Amino acid sequence: MNTFSKSILKFAFLGLIIFAFSCSKSDSEDTTTTTTKGCEKFGPTSGSAVMNGNSSYNILISQYISNEDLGDFEHTFQIGGVSSDCNELKTFSFSIENSSSSPAGTYPIKSLSASGKNTATGDVTQQKISPISQSLLDMKSGELIIKDLGSKKFEINLNAALTDQSSVSLKCTHQF
Cystine design at 170: which of 9, 71, 157, 158 (Cβ 3.0–4.6 Å)? Predict the structure, then answer.
């Protein structure tokens, strides 16, 4: 298993653990009300993201890692958002390999087997509390645009087709 695959699995597992530990509900809780800001059981959020055209996702997970190896750079992102009704956690994980210390640019999204330099690969994890469900799907095609706004702040615009033929999108400006 290559380094990229291991990184993606680690990110997905971390998101699952955070989601699982923050989902327990007390029997005395009033489940008819929802929280649009914070979703207290999930802890603090750090901004918002538009996922699949829905702007009511509060960013809960955000990671950016950059590694250099012999002049090539691998930039790995993970952005997870909880829905306004606190019932769903959706996490986008993606990586880019380029020859720049900045991830800024426009990249075609490819499957892992077809990826290479100046391409992006990734997956989307979706976890729901009720009804209980979880899915992890790889991105197979699409486009990723990243603008570097300085101080590890990026504008991200992602549109991708997944392996089950569905499509996803992510738009956010976030400081990591």
Answer: 158
